[in-house]
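Bumping with the actual sequence this time:
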Amino acid sequence: MSKMQRPKTNLNTKKCKICKRDFKSEKALKDHIFNTRVKDREHVKYKKFLRELRFRNANKICPVCKRKFFRMLGMHINVLKDIEHRRFRKEQTGFFFKLFSKNFSPSDIEKIKSKYTTHFGGKYIYTSLKNNLGENKYFEISKRIFSNKRKKYWSGFNVEQRKALMKNVYESEWKNLSLEERRKHPWVIAGLKASLESSKKGSKNQKYAYHLLTKEFPNLKFKYNYILEKDWHVDIAIPERKIFIEWDGRHHRIPIHGVSYLNNRKNRDKIKNRIITSFGGFLIRVRDDGRENRDFVKSKVCEIKNIINKRNIWYGRVIQI
């Protein structure tokens, strides 16, 4: 048995019962008893007795060799190189990945009754998945799993119930905070980060709209984040038809990043309007409230589709839908 697996038996003495030697501490006595160089029959027998005494109540059992463990079962599985343990580890990793790819988190997998999960905690499952998938891939899938869980949880509440829940959150987490505390709150920081990323890369609604439009009009050459006159970009564009679409999120109307940022954003929108209309372009501005809503996107794409199909295009103008 390795040093890490040494049983933590309380001897409550400093004297060896076999050779009657006195030691400075109980730890020194244990080092003497479990020393691999001590090989006489009586000491070996006593050492075996202590191990059996300690491991009699051990609750972790190796599914391959049936050895008992208090801890370090995962290390035991990963360290041993014999065929049986390696086969089990390979099957176990495949079992974890199969469930993980089906939106089971490590804590969900831990609750499943199986020879691959019994006595193996969530931390072991997490480490196994991360080591085999790579950190980036693991967190990409993990993020999707928890996003789906959140959506599923909130879908069980109607609008009034959601408002009631959020009111409780407001009363307990937000109401009594000072203005400075609110600015530094993790919710605000996360919201600002998401909003800034959205303003650069586009929101999920905007990306979904682009996806739908390219499907609806396979013959039109849509461009995402189209560069206009070097310093300006348009969210979605059909350059050859001079049709441009701006997907305006909440940061175009609400001072999420402050009043000065909002004023600058409004001014840049006006300039962009003038640039597009100056060369006879047609700009459609979509007012979006920010939350991911595929039904909303589908309705707006339907409006855009009708405008393009009916050739109801007013070149040199800007419209909002």
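The tokens above came from a reply further down the thread. The chain has four domains: 3-57, 73-148, 159-194, 202-320.
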